[in-house]
Structure formats: C-alpha cells, structure tokens
C-alpha cells in the first residue's frame, strides 16, 4: 500500500472544510477514514482506514482537560503508519505556549504564528504564540502508538527510523500537537537503520548524496509537510468559529 502524500491534499482539504466544532472523541477500536475529530479540531488523515488504538482525556488544570488520541494504519498485524493528536479541550484562561524544542537533523522546519481566539484581553507584553512544523527521522515507541493495544493485538512495528511530520500549534486558550509517522519502506524506500544512521546518506548534511528515488521521496514528504501545516493551522484557528 502506497501513501502518495501529495495526491491526498484534495481529500484533506475537503475533509477539513466540514469542521465539527463539538467536543468529540473517537473510541478505542473505532475505524476512521478521511479525518478524525478530537475536541473541536478536525484532523486530516492520509488515505486508507485507520483504527483508534488509544483515546483518553486527562485533567489539564484551570478547568480544562487534555485529549490524547492515537491512530494506526495496519496491514494485518503490521503497522504502516501512525497519527497522534494531543490537544486541550475547552477554553482555558491560561496562556498556552509551545516550547520550541531543540530539533536536530530535521529535513524541514518552519516557524509560524496562529491568531488568537475568544480573547477578551491581550496578555501584557505577550507576542502571538509561536507554532512549529518540522519533518525528521526518529524511531517509533510503543507508548506513542497505544502500548496496550499494540501488545494485545500483537502489532509488529519497525525498530528502524520513520519519517515524523510534527505540528505544534498554540493559541491563547488552547494548544494542538499532531504527529504523523510514516514507515518509508511501505513506499518502497530501503529501511533506514537506527544503528547506522550517522554513517548514512540520510543525515541532513549528506542528503545531497541520496539516490534519485530517495531524493524524490524526501521532496514529496517535505512538500506534504508544508501543505498540511497550512491545513492544520486553518483548522485550529477556526475551531471556535
């Protein structure tokens, strides 16, 4: 099964044009296609069927709570891709801000600003919250996928590096973080071994040495990350409309 990320943008934009603003959550085991609604955010899903492996809500203080939803795309018991959505539920007076983390070996990184919503008074001296989007190679962890679901269903996932497109957005009164994880071998790219990564051409400073197919795949992933950033930004900004 191939993902063809760029070919999915039409589907993504269509799904996100019909935003459900109710505070809703998927349930564990539920299957979804096209998009998933978490709280008031409608998150686009790449092509195919996705199963919810974990869906939970925990207190976040200030009369608010935080949702953490994990989705998997499977071929039998083999993991093809994963999506994780972390977001605040309800309006919170607290000034939420993403904390720009140190990003090493990223292939793409972009800083952008999201507007404020339902803000009666601007916090003194505070600029608009910083939001980040970035693409990098990282290994998967069972805790990112829904550990209980993985173990119960004996799901097989790679220990090699996967591409992670991460979106970390913040506004006055809320935050949203979405992580898309793609196993490149699903699209015919050779496995990127964790142990030999430092010697491979997949290092950021050696990417010019990648072969033509690898460069084409990387270019496609970067373009998809950039385009999806704008879709998520618009979805997040419109959640209280």
What does this structure look like?
The protein is an alpha+beta fold and 241 residues long. The chain has one domain (5-118, 125-237). It has helices at 9-16, 142-145, 147-152, 212-237, and strands at 31-32, 35-38, 41-44, 50-61, 64-75, 78-89, 108-113, 130-139, 161-171, 174-182. The strands form 2 sheets. The protein has an 8-stranded antiparallel sheet with strand order 1-4-5-6-10-9-8-7. Strands 2-3 form a two-stranded antiparallel sheet. Helix 1 (9-16) runs parallel beside helix 4. The radius of gyration is 18 Å and the shape is globular. The protein starts with 8 loop residues before the first helix and ends with a helix.
Which descriptors apply to this entry?
241 residues, alpha+beta, 10 strands, eight-stranded antiparallel sheet
What does this entry show, briefly?
The protein has 241 residues and is of the alpha+beta class. 18% of the residues lie in helices and 34% in strands.
Secondary-structure map with pairings?
Layout: H1 9-16, E1 31-32, E2 35-38, E3 41-44, E4 50-61, E5 64-75, E6 78-89, E7 108-113, E8 130-139, H2 142-145, H3 147-152, E9 161-171, E10 174-182, H4 212-237
Antiparallel strand pairs: 1-4, 2-3, 4-5, 5-6, 6-10, 7-8, 8-9, 9-10
Helix pairs in contact: 1-4
